[in-house]
Specification:
CATH superfamily of the largest domain: Metal-dependent hydrolases
Mean pLDDT: 91
Strand order of the largest sheet: 11-12-13-14-15-16-17
CATH class of the largest domain: Alpha Beta
Number of helices: 24
Number of domains: 4
Number of strands: 17
Helix content: 40-55%
CATH topology of the largest domain: TIM Barrel
Low-confidence stretches: 1-5
DNA sequence: GCCGTTTTCGGCCCGACTGTTTTCAGTCG
């Protein structure tokens, strides 16, 4: 059974290259390792199916892919295997790879543990550490041994990453506590949270202060800190709760912009930026942009000043993934990203009629309080028995209730909709005779996830060809950290959707975010317009709209790419068939 | 292994912190 099944081919190829990169790192070939890492990262972000690029013979046009890596990719696409990977794996027991998962253990230590003590698994490492064998190695000591044991403990209860939606409230908590210290002049979350990545591995908090020690002191004494990993004069790392790592950086005021830039990342984005700096005779770090010769400060107070001095437009944090944004900034063709305040409605709402907890009116009231102008009620259809899905009769009743409610509401519209189930054969769970009377039809797959790619793709394309479908709901079906996307040829799905002018949903529910950023960008490139819906099952779920906007922004979407930026009358005109 | 208005060879981002070292290597972000 191929563990990569269900991933896109691009993700499979990236995965292979990542593993090769890690194996080279263990062998001490850091530059070769990095080359594979860069190529993997870039391929994971490609919006075009890599098979197409290969068929055109243009693999080497991908930045970071040269002759050798192109050959690895080609072999993998042809045979589903990589002889280079096999070869590297043979040279090293699998367990050694496991060791570098531990905090504080990198390729060098892992290899020495393996070569000198024959350790090739985390379990063996634990035994050796408990027996006091680690401290006897040259360059290791009692402290390292103790840290290894602690890291093993953390590794075992570690949750790889956290949902963005779960992390944002924690950030608010930390910011509020830190503001209680008057040495804190300004505090800002940076890192992947600022980039609004769908999952966050750890938190980076940036503080402006002229009294850094006091700030660090406040930081390590936060209420939920369970372990202090490091505590310096300008920098500290702690674990809060069971396993959330939080990094603090304290920066003097004059370096605000460069520090914010630096700590926002991503790593790949920053490396590229610093390479540009080097070529221009500068040095870029968290304190500013400096002339390499004279040491003179060129920029640093604002992020804009740093980008400008490097010949770039300022780049929105959500774009900073080295997915082409630096090239776009050089050429002045960055997108004008859609903003949260431009979203006028939520196009995927559940109510008590099926498995939601709010009435239609409660959902409308909440939407109004959020400043929205409309919502689309999209309860489940009948085959979702568990969710009390609606049959035609109940749906008609709901539609009548919405009509009555709309008569009472001013400056707000409740749209009549449905989240209709796409059945195994691609037909829909409700007849056209009722779908045609709705304003907004979301069609989604909720069963039969195990079907193969061809079946799944055909099923979805058939649904796209229904005359009354407005949008495909959570198109890939993935649940972040839990369920892989179903096998689907998205390229073909997007082609059909573009041709039929069917929307693709960006489902904003925290553990869905489906389409994701890369797929949203790919859909845009196919000429598809997207709809953002929170899939709210309770009134406060509508606050997740910001997560959907985050995905859209990370997918380079502009206001015209998102249908809910339209006022309700224009929206309805667009949806007419 | 990749890449090129300093280069087709010789570089490859940069600094903080820790633990082990008496001046630095490894790791991390």
């Amino acid at each position: 059974m191929n563990p990569l099944k269900g991933m896109s081919v691009n993700a499979e190829v990236a995965e292979i290259l990542y593993e090769i990169s890690e194996l080279y790192a263990l062998k001490g070939e850091q530059y070769r390792s990095r080359a594979y890492m860069m190529a993997a990262q870039r391929i994971g972000s490609l919006t075009e199916d890599i098979r197409k690029i290969w068929q055109r013979g243009e693999l080497q046009s991908i930045p970071g892919v040269g002759k050798s890596i192109a050959a690895v990719i080609e072999e993998y696409l042809e045979t589903g295997q990589s002889s280079k990977l096999e070869e590297l794996r043979e040279g090293l027991p699998r367990g050694v790879m496991e060791l570098i998962e531990l905090d504080g253990v990198g390729p060098k230590k892992a290899m020495r543990l393996y070569e000198e003590l024959g350790i090739n698994s985390i379990d063996e490492l634990e035994k050796a550490a408990k027996a006091g064998k680690i401290r006897r190695l040259k360059g290791f000591g009692p402290k390292t041994e103790e840290n290894i044991l602690q890291s093993i403990e953390e590794y075992r209860r570690r949750q790889e990453r956290f949902l963005l939606g779960a992390i944002l409230p924690v950030i608010d908590e930390i910011v509020a506590y830190m503001k209680g210290c008057d040495a804190v002049l300004r505090i800002e979350p940076a890192g992947s949270a600022r980039r609004r990545k769908e999952t966050v591995g750890d938190l980076d908090i940036l503080v402006l202060s002229t009294r850094p020690e006091e700030v660090v002191e406040r930081f390590v004494s936060m209420p939920r800190v369970s372990r202090v990993i490091s505590q310096g004069t300008t920098r500290s790392t702690v674990i809060i709760g069971a396993n959330l790592q939080v990094d603090l950086r304290v920066i003097p005021p004059e370096s605000y912009g460069s520090a914010l830039q630096y700590f926002t990342g991503s790593k790949a984005h920053n490396i590229k930026l610093r390479t540009i700096a080097v070529k221009k005779g500068y040095k870029l770090n968290e304190y500013g942009l400096f002339d390499r010769e004279t040491g003179e400060r060129i920029a640093g107070e604002t992020e804009e000043s740093v980008y400008k001095a490097l010949g770039l437009e300022w780049i929105e944090p959500e774009l900073r993934e080295d997915r082409g944004e630096i090239e776009a900034a050089m050429e002045g063709r960055l997108p004008r990203l859609v903003k949260e305040e431009e979203i006028r409605g939520d196009l995927h709402i559940h109510t008590k009629w099926s498995d939601g907890t709010g009435t239609i009116e409660e959902m409308a009231q909440k939407a109004m309080s959020l400043g929205l102008e409309y919502i689309a009620i999209c309860d489940h259809s009948k085959s979702m028995g568990i969710a009390r899905g609606l049959d035609e009769e109940r749906l008609r009743k709901q539609m009548a209730e919405i009509d009555r409610l709309n008569e009472r509401l001013e400056g707000f519209t409740v749209l009549k909709g449905i989240e209709v189930d796409i059945k195994a054969d691609g037909s829909l769970d409700l007849p056209d005779s009722v779908l045609k009377d709705l304003d907004f039809v979301v069609a989604s797959i909720h069963s039969g996830f195990k079907a193969d790619e061809r079946q799944m793709t055909e099923r979805m394309i058939r649904a796209i060809h229904n005359d009354y479908v407005s949008a495909i709901g959570h198109p890939t079906g993935r649940i972040i950290l839990r369920r892989r996307p179903y096998a689907l040829n998205l390229d073909k799905v997007f082609e059909a959707a573009a041709e039929q002018e069917v929307l693709m949903e960006i489902n904003a529910f925290p553990n869905r975010l489906d389409l994701n950023d890369v797929n949203a960008k790919a859909a845009k490139e196919h000429g598809i317009v997207m709809s953002i819906g929170t899939d709210a099952h309770a009134p406060n779920h509508m606050e997740f709209l910001n997560l959907g906007v985050a995905v859209a922004r990370r997918g380079w979407l502009e206001p015209g790419d998102v249908i809910n930026t339209l006022p309700v009358d224009e929206l309805l005109r667009k949806l007419e068939r």
